Amino acid sequence: MWQGTIESINIADSAKAPMRALVEVRAIPGVGLEGDRYARQQGTFYKPEPDYELTLIEAEAIEALSRDCAIELPPGDARRNLVTRGVPLNHLVAKEFFIGDVKIRGLRLCEPCDHLQQLTERPGLIKGLLHRGGLRAQILSEGTIRVGAVVRA
Predict the structure, then answer these.
(1) For residue 111, how far is the Cα from the chain centroid?
(2) Helix or strand or coil: residue 74?
(3) pTM, entire model
């Protein structure tokens, strides 16, 4: 059994807008994170589907990108809502888990794309994050997610 934590929370007001870090955010089922571009239906790839409610990436993947590919990427620049530590995100596809008291369902991997590479202006990012670009997830219960919150199965 594993147990991890939330290291950072990041949202953007609109498509291509810079991500901004928060200490806490309200998670709303069927909507997303309050104030985020996808909750406001303004994300680049917005569709009214559950896998656009929440995205996560492992801090370890960002560190590996630096170590293995010499690409420095601040957590917010990954353009994922939550950065975790100690959470095996790839193993959470089709599984339910908790972030604090908020119930989440992992839906599919969030593979890196050309859009992310262009926004970050970091050639090689796609290859460096392939199969470790994070998780798309659905919010199943309303609540507040905080930096430092425990993530558990």
Answers:
(1) 11
(2) coil
(3) 0.91
